[in-house]
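Thread: quick sanity check before group meeting

JM: Hey all, I'm pulling together slides for Thursday and realized we never actually wrote out the predicted structure for the chain we discussed last week. Dropping the sequence here so it's in one place. If anyone has concerns about the input, flag it before I start.
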Amino acid sequence: MNSFFQKKSLIINFLVTVTLTYLVISLMFPTTEAEIPVGADGETPSAEIEYPVYAEGGKPVATVCFSKQSPASLKPVLTWTKVEGAVAYEIEFFHELPETAEGPYVHPVPFFSSREIYVNGFNADLTEFLQDNIFYWRVRGLDLDGKPVGEFSDAVKVYLDRNKDIRQKPVPTSIFNQSTGSTLLYPVYAWIPVNGADKYEVEILDAPPENPNGIMPSVHRIDSAIAVGFDYYDVTPRFAAKPFYWRVRGMDRDGRPVGVFSDAGEFILNPDEPVPVATFGDSITHGGGSVSYSPADWEFSYQHYLDFPTINLGKSGDTSQTMVERFDQDVLPFKPQILLIMAGSNSVRGSYTAQSIIDDLQVLEEKCLKNGIRPVFLTLPPINPDNINRVFNEETDPDWQEKLQQVNAFIRTREYIDIAQDMGDEQGILPTGMAIDGLHLDMKGKQAIAAVINANWQHILQSPTSVEVKG
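JM (edit): ok, ran it. Output follows.
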């Protein structure tokens, strides 16, 4: 499937066309100034504070605060909880606290606003806007049409120190190996962008950088890539007995640094450690959804909701054919006891025949059995061609439903788990509520996949063809 960078480029272009003067006339509850804990350094979110990942009721909650004792520079990073169903965010800055009165919605005119934010964080630039030492901000989610998803967050007061040194650096949001389902063979590195950066350089290292907060490449660099936006999908499988590290820096159009390198993130996938269960597939397996969220947003991975640990061998963009081609390279080093396989969604919607997809599934099955791996197939979920075309401007093979039925009928003759049985509507179309873009299942869709797998897992382990799963 297409990389999320391509998806984001498309949706950015789409949302830019939406009117920037959208106004909601409604009755509102009084807006109050939010009180939240102060981060350890007052400049970026504190690791000491436990925040919910998602906003309850669609109302974001600020996750960073700048107090009198710990004020912001003129280029602070503002962060908030994600909003389920939002593909973008709208942020507003005010000189005074926004208020509501009885009757129509009334508030001061913001001195700055943006509706083109595609992560739950924003690096503000206040150097040309403010003479005062305080301002207020609030944020809300937007859907694919640029309409609000839930309420604005409570307004948050920010104290500024105009003499504070400005240190711009991207804030990493990909945190690997620390939660269920957060181990990727093909990592996705994501960050909060730096104001003024035109592109980014991602650096992969085999040891921690010797020059933190610097602008020069590390002597431990083993690879690098240029990215646009706020994430990069690694095209190289990263596995070794020792950890890898990654960091990113902003650059202007001429390649000059904008700020410094981010803090380095660490991740590891050791092929020498026993792997009971691995997942293998395309971007539905790799993860991501709601247009703007990548596989590094773990809530959009079905593995995050499983009752047992796995490693994720998925790769965005795969067809059933490319899965066959990379099997030896990407699966065999880990020697999984059970391999959960979801293969063919891109092939079904493309020009591949049902028989060619079935042939590929048979090759995958044979490769597994030949190497002592137990294959367990997952049925393919339906898709929504109208939503795919709307978001990606891609046509779907008109025979996709017939092909999907044939492929799933074959899968049901093997050892399988039927995750797709109740996913379609009366016409067999994937509902928008399960996948905004018509293809990549969102949180509810990924939770539904995991729920079916969890419900059938003991049966899989106890079936006559089962092997003892260790670990």
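AS: nice. The two ends are 32 Å apart (CA to CA). The chain has three domains: 22-166, 171-267, 277-462.
JM: adding both to the slides.
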